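Appendix B, example 12.
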Amino acid sequence: MIINNLKIAYRNLIRNKGYSFINIVGLAIGMACTILLLLWVNHEMSYDTFHNDPERVYQVGNYQTWNGKRNAMPNLPTPLIDALKEKYPEIKYATHFNAWGENLLLEYNGKKQYESIKGADPDFFKIFNFPVLQGNIETCLNDINSLVLTEKSAKRIFGNENPIGKTVNIDNRQPLTVTAVVKDIPTNSSIRFELLMPFELMRKANPWSENWGSHNYFGYAKIAEGTNIDVLNEKLDQFYIDHVDKESEKYAFLYPLLKRHLYYLDNSPSKITQVKMFFMIAIFILIIACFNFMNLSTARAAKRAKEIGLKKAIGATYPQLIKQFIGESLLITIISANFAIILAHLFLPQFNSLMNRHLILDYSSLEFWLIIVGVTLVTGLVAGAYPAFYLSSFNPIMVLKGTFSGGKGSNRFRRILVVMQFILASSLLICTLTIVLQTNYLTNMDIGLNKDNVIAININQQMQKKIETIKGELMRSSFIENVSYGSHRPYYVFSNGWGENWEGKDPEFKPLITYPYVDPEFFDVFKVKFHSGRPFNANNPAADSSCVIINETFAKMISNELVIDKMIHTGNNEDLRIIGVVKDYHCTPNTRKLQPFLLRLCDDPRFLFVRYVEGNATKTVQEIQKICGKYNPEFPLIYNFLDDHYDNLYEGQRATISTLLYASILAIIVSCLGLFGLASFNAEERTKEIGVRKVLGASMNQLILIFSKDFSKWILIASLISWPITYFAMEVWFQDYPFRIDFPFWLFIAVFLMLLIISTITVAYQSWKSATKNPVVSLKYE
């Protein structure tokens, strides 16, 4: 019976090549897209699962209380990790983990290169499991001058030499000896490093970090087996009060590592939003492909009515017929799945480039085949279920008497499926285009300072000593308008304080204040406008060492009146006088609210900012290299253009947009494939009607209009239903953006017209083909 059913299924495929092609192509495209998206979703959900007992690993966080609300922060004071491990036996292992520097100069055998180095404690490799290739992983961080490399970094630094025991020099001041080499960090790891040294060395270099008020490092812990994490977190909630400060409003806690990639420390959604979005898109596209199959299968029902009637007449049961049609559906789905794998393989490099991932189709992986088999079975059963039950329900007597027709019910169902397809396609496209407009708005909005034609140069300790001399020489260049230095890029500052006081301040009001450190030329370089007061004294900066400039947002917090010459008392027991108020600008990404900030003179510059005359970028870079090279010959220059760096802040959002656009296009293509198939079937069913209309004098344009009218009506209904859905969905999405566009209602009409034009073009060929057919051929048997 099974062999016979397979033969029948194969013959039906061959006999109806056009419909089979549409079904297979539609399913293959839908399944390929679903496979790629589920591959990405699976990768994001698998973060940090490769460690031993990952459910026992936690990130250490602490809450800071602002305005009566607890705010979770990952940054910790250095002594906290040691104290927790000492006070709580439930914490088996604990480690600091942080970057020492992103661009440290590493030297080996006269070869110099910049490297990013991170620090950790000896417990690091007892918490996290990165397979060791060389050296002893148990003791590799015990020596204060040790260095652990990944396989990739070892190859980059030492080539084919054995790195174990070799000594490198960091920033011309710190020798480190390689003690171990580990495998390259998996792409699904939230803990990443290429060079790792003992955290103890960082502590030695930065003794100020031992202060309980200095929050600069991350920490991780592994709890003992059987520990109740809720009970332990209740104990940690009292740690600061019991062991540091009875008046403290800080609270330590542990957060599961397995959730860290998907959620923020306060358990609010992070990457999980994108994961859910892409999972839903994968399901939507698969549903659209399944609807195509169901539509075409039920549309062709009358063609198989006699086969079903005969089978029922000779004793075939209802379950047997259902099995046959489900089997046929699975056969088509399996064929489609093979093409889907080929398509996924072909487009995986582009998908990886788009998503900045290194996903692979691992044919030896159980997870990969679970995705393939799962998608195939779900598609086959969902797509084949309704056609199977519908076809099996035919009345054999009516069929064999020739009085059977498909019925109004099946026509209504097909229309519903088409409408649902275009609801999904329309909703997806409107949402995507709205996100595009919002992202364009954010990237192009006025952030209150001018970042164009500015080069940012990383400053090391050697350049810091000569910073004023370098500034002076650069200013003599005809290509350069002005030069400034500071602690951060001006739109990306994450240096905060929360202990500021001023006259009349409510003691319960504890805002988070951002601290950019700048020099007197900052305001000219970035074209920052003043609301009142004056800038720092460029001729005598020392005279303003106890002065600050604040923004309008901060000024409104202090007073509705003039704030010039008012005093601010900081958390470090400094009294600072306000000498100026600048107009608000974004010192943090504009996906956040405007922050109150306090500008101070910079005594530890990390960046040099050079504003050049427009059109002279190349000459300016050459001038910078010449001058900086004179005072910093051993360190290659690291620089970037600020407008490029700013644009890169939205790179992740652009990747999401591109994926959504491609998904929308695929959804429309798959929907139109089904529409083309239905139009072909419709033309076949209405051949005689068209012949009669032509005989009665209908023109070709009238026939095409009649033919397209139904499809246009379905698109209109789908659009009307999708509009409120997308509006409310996007309003929820907009809640995360303090700066946003008004909802673009014009997109409703634009997307409707676009879908209408595409669908009309899709059915136009069949309309024209039917309208140009000789009516004699259609009516010769009547």
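The first strand starts at residue 57 and ends at 66. The two ends are 40 Å apart (CA to CA).
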